[in-house]
Design a protein that fits this description.
Blueprint (H helix, E strand, L loop, with lengths): L13 H4 L18 H14 L4 H9 L4 H7 L9 H7 L2 H14 L1 H11 L3 H12 L8 E2 H10 L4 H17 L7 E2 L12 H7 L14 H14 L15 H7 L3 H15 L3
Antiparallel strand pairs: 1-2
Bound molecules: calcium ion.
Calcium ion binds next to loops.
């Protein structure tokens, strides 16, 4: 899932400022790579206190400052488009056409997800198509390096720190390794979960005993689970102004993205 324009999270507390006895000062953010090594050393202590184990801490130690991630973060354009332009640029008509084919080819799979989580096929398929072209391109940035770089970077450190902790815990669990690739903001797999959300909402749907965001069944079930946990009401509408649009808003904070998903989903669910 993408993370653009997410609401800022207030991180002001005596604990964070290191003003309470016995607490360490938070690792200092930076605006270029020069302070990353020092930040990693300080952040390792925060991570350990948050419950990250040896494998996660080793992945943190090996993380590299992700210049491409920062370049991408400083240059986000597409959400400034109008809805029509956004849908055109993102290939909405192609996603709808391919999405209808995917739904028709595998109805039992999507029916099972709707029965379990209440989220209709069109919504999951629209998200899948929008995020990665149905798994066609899931990114080539190292997830741990990308997400720790964003946690270090001053611009949105408070937002990304929990996701960095989440990524390190995913390493501990064996869900990812320090070498796992994702999108430039550390998003994972078919539907681009940020690591903290992956940790919290991940589901093993194919029954192999592990959550794998690079497996379509696991990724789409996790996406449905996320929407359900964010208040999706089975059988209710999901267009703007209807009850389930709120859950789509939780998935991505950009208004044009939310509207595009709702429109494409309805077209997919209406069939061809
Ligand atoms: Ca699995």
């Amino acid at each position: 899932m993408m993370s653009r324009w997410s609401r800022p999270i207030a991180a002001f507390s005596l604990f964070a400022l290191g003003l309470l006895p016995g607490t360490a000062t938070a690792a200092p953010c930076g605006n270029n790579g020069s302070g990353f090594a020092a930040w990693k050393a300080a952040f390792a202590q925060e991570a350990a206190r948050a419950g990250v184990g040896n494998r996660g801490l080793q992945a943190l130690a090996n993380a590299q400052y992700a210049s491409r991630t920062i370049a991408a973060d400083r240059n986000q354009k597409s959400f400034k488009y109008s809805l029509d332009k956004f849908m055109q640029v993102r290939g909405a008509s192609t996603i709808v056409a391919q999405g209808r084919t995917r739904k028709a080819r595998n109805p039992q799979f999507y029916n099972a997800l709707e029965q379990r989580y209440g989220v209709p096929a069109g919504v999951l398929i629209a998200i899948h198509g929008m995020e990665t072209g149905f798994g066609g391109f899931m990114g080539d940035s190292r997830v741990v390096s990308a997400i720790t770089t964003l946690a270090y970077d001053c611009r949105r450190s408070a937002f990304f720190v929990p996701h960095a902790i989440g990524a390190l815990k995913l390493v501990d669990q064996g869900t990812i390794t320090g070498d796992t690739r994702g999108a430039k903001h550390g998003e994972l797999g078919h539907t681009q979960f940020l690591p903290g959300n992956a940790l919290k909402y991940g589901v093993d749907a194919n029954g192999d005993g592990r959550v794998d965001f690079y497996d379509q069944a696991d990724a789409l079930a996790s996406t449905a689970n996320y929407l359900r946990q964010k208040g999706w009401q089975p059988g209710q509408g999901y267009q703007e102004g209807q009850p389930n649009f709120r859950a789509i808003r939780e998935w991505n904070a950009a208004g044009v993205y939310q509207k595009a998903i709702a429109i494409m989903a309805a077209e997919i669910d209406a069939g061809g």
